[in-house]
Structures are given as structure tokens and as C-alpha cells.
Amino acid sequence: MEETNDRMKLYAGKEKNFKKFIWNSETSQFLGRTAGSWLKIGVFYLIFYACLAGFFAIMLAVFYQTLDTNHLPKYTPGGGGSLLRNPAMGFRPLPRSENVESTLIWYKNGDNDDIKHWVDTLNEFIKPYEGTSDAISGQHITDCSEDNFPKEREVCRFQDSWLKDKCQKAESWGYNRESPCILLKLNKMIRWVPEVYETLEELPQDMPESLKKHIEKRMTENQGRIPKMIWVSCEGENPADQEYIGPIRYSPWQGFPAYYFPYMHTPGYLSPIVAVQFDSPVSNVLINIECRAWAKNIKHDRQNRLGLVHFELLKD
Questions:
Q1: How far apart are CA 272 and CA 266, in angstroms?
Q2: From CA 296, how far away is CA 204, in angstroms rounded?
Q3: How far apart are CA 310 and CA 6, in angstroms?
Q4: What are the distances in angstroms from CA 144 to CA 7, 62, 77, 114?
Q5: For the chain, how far is it from start to end, CA to CA, in angstroms?
Q6: pLDDT computed for residue 166 by the predictor
Q7: What is the 3-state secondary structure (H, E, C) of the chain?
Q8: Which of 46, 195, 244, 301 is the residue whose CA sits 20 to 30 A from 286?
Q9: What pLDDT score does 87 carry?
Q10: What's this model's pTM, rounded to 2 decimal places?
Q11: What count of other Cβ atoms lies within 10 Å of the Cβ of residue 133?
């Protein structure tokens, strides 16, 4: 019993000392310091960390002045030093942020609230191509063709007005109709130059027959020469998908003209776009779609998504 009383007295003493440490009414100290002491140490650390942050900011500014933001990296695909020698392809619109890993484009036909995300995403993506952005102003922009490749420090023009049919902002990209549009682009790879097909004999065996016929038609229209293009094809991945996907239209071309390459980090450069319009995909059916880019130095790898892009389309 006596031992218990001693423990209680010891505990009470410790509690009293702790409370006194928090606030000592006799000396007006909080946590062992008076208000004046806290003010002095606070001012000291405020000045100390302000000087430290200022020194860091000055050193960062000096370091930034040594950087050339227009400098090309040492290892690039065209120079042979990079392991990344095969371009990948991307698509828009992307699914909502909560489904960032998804590749499903799912919308309710005729429901303006439901299609708003897809339309707004494409509207935002196309802004630099509208001719009002600072990104394409200046003297770097030029009109290109197969006989007029861009000169050094020039880039080729690409405008949203070249996209046709429902693949336009004014048409809500076809999502308020029966013809949704997907925009395709190749990832930027510095100094990468496509090796285009120059004869029909060079076309690979696994290239879709519809694309081969299109290339042959373009060759006839181009005085017997195959246009210098990275060709694009989109198909349903499986026989059922090919049955449900319906007719497909491409604009402004069924591919990316070679004069847009190589990308050299020139200010004002905009990646060329291929708009893919699905005229009448079957409703209430999940359609797996694969789009491929075709050139002699583009290899297709489904596992690493090289030279192709996969997405699903579901229209309710």
C-alpha cells in the first residue's frame, strides 16, 4: 500500500512538472522560453531560411542561364545512338482521368451531357491547330508539299480546317451523330526520318488490302509515283470487330506526309494529325480497334505498343 502511494506521488510530481514546462505562470515562460526569447529565435530562423531560399533561387537562375532549351539531345533515333528507334502512336480523345489506364471510348449517342467529355477533350487538343495560338505564329511556318520540303528552322503548316466531314469542332466531332471521330498522331522523335514505300512491290504482305488499293489509287493520281507518306490503317482486331466497325473515312490524308519529318525541336512545330471517322459503328457492341502506321522502318509490336495504337469503341 505504501509503495502504491509513492508511485502516485511520483506520477503527480511528473504531471505537475510537465504542466509547469508547458506554461510557467511565475516566469511567464511557454515551453521553457519567454515571449521575447520565442520572438528572437523566430526572427532568426525566418531570416536564415529566407537567405537559404534566396541563395538556392539565385543558384538555380544562374544554372538555368547555362541551358539551351533549343539544344538537341546527344542521343537521338536518327543519329543511331538511341535505343528508341521506333515511333509510337497516340489517339485522342482520352478517357476520363478516373479511368486513366483505360482505352475505352464509351458514350451515349445523342446525350449531350455524356458526350461533353469527349467533345471538350478534342476541342482542347485541336486549339494549337486553329491558327490563333502563339505556338504557330511567326516566320517558322511554311506551306509544304512533296516538292517543297521545309528548310532549316522551318516547320510545315497543319490546320484544323483540313479535317473533313464530321471530324470538326463545329460538328462536335461526330459524337452528336452516328459518326464518332478519333484523332491519331505519331509521338515526336528527334531526327527520326521515315523510310517510305516507293513501289507497290515494297508493300508488306500483312498490310490491309484496302490500304494497298488506296495506295495504288493515289499512285495513279500522282503520275505513277507513290506519295511519300507514313500510311495509316484502322481495322477491327477480330473478325467480329471488323463486321461491327462499319465504313471508315480518313482526313485530310490516310497517313502522315513525309515532309513533316524529321522533328528537330523547331519552335512552332505541330505534329500532323489523321482524323479517323467511323461512319456507322454498330450500337451496344464493344468494338476493339487497332490503328497502324506503315513505313519501311516502322515495326509493329502489340506488347510495347510500337507503330500502332489500340482502343475500344462503345456507342450506346
A1: 14
A2: 9
A3: 77
A4: 92, 40, 24, 39
A5: 81
A6: 92
A7: CHHHHHHHHHHHHHHHHHHHHHEECCCCEECCECHHHHHHHHHHHHHHHHHHHHHHHHHHHHHHHCCCCCCCCCCCHHHCCCCCCCCCEEEECCCCHHHCCCCEEEECCCCHHHHHHHHHHHHHHHHHHCCCCHHHCCCCEECCECCECCCCCCEECCCHHHCCCCCCHHHHHHCCCCCCEEEEEECCCECCCCCCCCCHHHCCCCCCHHHHHHHHHHHHHCCCCCCCEEEEEEEECCHHHHHHCCCEEEECCCEEEHHHCCECCCCCCCCCCEEEEECCCCCCCCEEEEEEEECCCCCCECCCCECEEEEEEEEC
A8: 301
A9: 86
A10: 0.76
A11: 12
Closest to 92 (Cα-Cα) out of 182, 162, 169: 182
247, 135 contact by CB (below 8 A): no
Burial class from Cβ neighbours inside 10 Å (0-12, 13-18, 19+) for residue 214 reads middle
**Cα Dmax for the chain:** 113
Query: Residue 21 has what pLDDT?
Result: 65
Contact at 8 Å (CB) between 21 and 32?
yes
Q: Which residues contact 54 (CB under 8 A, 6 or more apart)?
A: none
Instruction: Please report the pLDDT score of residue 117 as a whole number.
Output: 92
The one-letter amino acid code at 316 reads D
Strands 104-107 and 308-315: parallel
Q: What length does the chain have? A: 316
Q: Low-confidence residues of the chain, pLDDT below 50? A: 133-137
Amino acid at 280: S
The phi, psi pair for 172, rounded to 5°, reads 55, 30
| Those residues with Cβ within 8 angstroms of residue 78's Cβ, 6 or more apart along the chain or in another chain | 190, 191, 192, 193, 262
